[in-house]
């Protein structure tokens, strides 16, 4: 028998063994929890498999388990290890990396949908939530108590996932900093132990979880700090096309001087939808939580400097505002993110903006293609307010500008082309920024990376922090369950 035939035979055998192990795992879950285990012929399976906003992540696991308690999670972890079955943990489904929160038929998905409890403390200073809670319901729940949380601006992503991805970054980060929303995280370790990680107990695990992804445990509940903001001036607005110079200058100025007005916030979202128009639209989110109806600190994004042509700023609550959006994209939409940073400099922003749109112009004929190139001006409060964190985020990381690319398209057949063009575009952007001495900067935000950026993410936290992350991983998961049996996402042990 030839070596090639032997290898093919071994591969087939391993495939059969793996398939049998997955079947055994699904059967064990279904026998114990028939009302929480779902197979491909059920509506609930379809709902959970397609829960994420992009079809890039609809991978079709062998079965789906939706625990309702810590006890359920403990049984599932025991089952996965007993049968050596790979699995994925899906929270809100916001990350478009295909296997970060799902897995194909070679494994089992654990969906946190049923872990949806919310309970505010008597003093209203903290709120405890289940791992399946997403931002719009949380904001709406907090509205009734006259408080809110330092979360994302918009989107139906998971709260816990945002914490594990580096901490949510939104409007209030300009006053309170980012990555400091969690007071504690309750999680189940690989051996089934339930622990609470906070600044007072299991401090090392708490430090590692914020920005450490899915490498340590299954978070079942989180206790969050609330913020005494009952309403704010909020707007989704557009300045139309043809205003790039004033828009980019405004981004630079906000990064440099926005800390003088910490109750103000701006996120720039430039958009191109070639099927509708050849022009790039300059849009954004505006926020002001101070008193009165004049949004101090946003002068560069309002008349007379940059008049708003569509939308307006109105006083509302985060619950009302975040629940007005339709978060469902067209069925079957493909998507990815890409993360980039630069100095707080209009020339840097112009390099990134021009190079991106010039480089992707050839994608205009791709069915369903559209894209957003977000510009996030970062003030010193954003990066220096959080406590010591695994990401190494600090005062040296600002003022700066962060960018997020988020292209959408319709067909899997175009994946290679869209991703290839974006890879070339980002190589050019980085080369030009580097040549100008304006970036890219070292910080990587796990929540918004592209799959191709996984190898550089944890090393960007710094050598010392990476060694510490690995030591903590070895301590809490010595059998590498969340490394070897959870193959998706960025892996600390492999960095």
UniProtKB/TrEMBL annotation:
Keyword annotations from UniProtKB, A to Z: FAD, Flavoprotein, Oxidoreductase, Signal
Keyword Translocase: no
Residue span(s) of domain FAD-binding PCMH-type: 57-229
Record GO terms (molecular function): FAD binding; oxidoreductase activity
Extent of the signal sequence: 1-19
PROSITE patterns noted in UniProt: FAD_PCMH
Pfam families per the UniProt record, alphabetical: FAD_binding_4
Family: Belongs to the oxygen-dependent FAD-linked oxidoreductase family.
Protein name stated in the entry: FAD-binding PCMH-type domain-containing protein
Organism: Fusarium falciforme
């Amino acid at each position: 028998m030839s070596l090639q035939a032997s290898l093919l035979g071994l591969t087939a055998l391993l495939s059969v063994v793996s398939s049998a192990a997955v079947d055994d795992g699904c059967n064990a879950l279904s026998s114990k929890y028939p009302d929480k285990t779902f197979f491909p012929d059920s509506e609930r399976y379809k709902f959970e498999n397609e829960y994420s906003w992009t079809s890039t992540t609809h991978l079709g696991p062998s079965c789906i388990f939706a625990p309702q308690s810590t006890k359920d999670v403990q049984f599932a972890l025991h089952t996965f290890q007993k049968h050596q079955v790979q699995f994925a943990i899906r929270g809100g489904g916001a990350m478009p990396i295909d296997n970060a929160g799902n897995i194909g038929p070679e494994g089992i998905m654990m969906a946190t949908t049923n872990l949806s409890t919310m309970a505010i403390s008597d003093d209203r200073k903290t709120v405890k939530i289940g791992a399946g809670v997403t931002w719009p319901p949380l904001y709406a729940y907090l509205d009734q108590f006259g408080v809110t949380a330092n979360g994302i601006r918009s989107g139906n992503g998971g709260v816990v996932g945002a914490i594990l991805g580096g901490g949510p970054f939104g409007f209030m980060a300009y006053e309170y900093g980012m990555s400091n929303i969690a007071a504690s995280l309750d999680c189940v370790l690989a051996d089934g132990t339930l622990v609470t990680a906070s600044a007072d107990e299991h401090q090392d695990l708490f430090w590692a979880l914020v920005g450490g992804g899915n490498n340590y445990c299954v978070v079942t509940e989180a206790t969050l700090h609330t913020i005494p903001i009952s309403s704010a001036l909020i707007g989704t607005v557009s300045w139309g096309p043809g205003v790039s110079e004033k828009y980019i200058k405004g981004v630079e100025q906000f990064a440099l001087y926005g800390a003088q007005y910490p109750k103000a916030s701006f996120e720039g979202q430039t958009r191109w939808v070639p099927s509708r128009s050849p022009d790039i639209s300059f849009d954004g989110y505006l926020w002001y939580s101070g008193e009165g109806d004049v949004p101090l600190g946003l002068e560069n994004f309002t008349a007379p400097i940059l008049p708003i042509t569509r939308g307006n700023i109105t006083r509302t609550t985060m619950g009302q505002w975040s629940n007005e959006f339709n978060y469902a994209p067209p069925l079957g939409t493909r998507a990815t993110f890409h993360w980039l940073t630069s100095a707080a400099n209009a020339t840097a922003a112009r390099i990134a903006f021009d190079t991106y749109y010039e480089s992707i112009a050839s994608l205009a004929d791709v069915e369903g293609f559209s894209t957003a190139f977000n510009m996030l001006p970062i003030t010193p409060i954003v990066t220096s307010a959080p406590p010591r964190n695994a990401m190494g985020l600090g005062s040296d990381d600002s003022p700066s500008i962060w960018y997020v690319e988020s292209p959408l398209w319709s067909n899997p057949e175009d994946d290679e082309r869209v991703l290839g063009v974006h890879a070339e575009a980002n190589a050019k952007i980085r080369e030009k920024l580097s040549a100008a001495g304006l970036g890219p900067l070292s910080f990587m935000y796990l929540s918004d990376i592209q799959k191709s950026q996984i190898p550089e993410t944890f090393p960007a936290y710094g050598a010392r922090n990476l060694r510490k992350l690995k030591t903590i991983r070895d301590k809490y998961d010595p059998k590498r369950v969340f490394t070897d049996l959870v193959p998706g996402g960025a892996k600390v042990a492999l960095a």
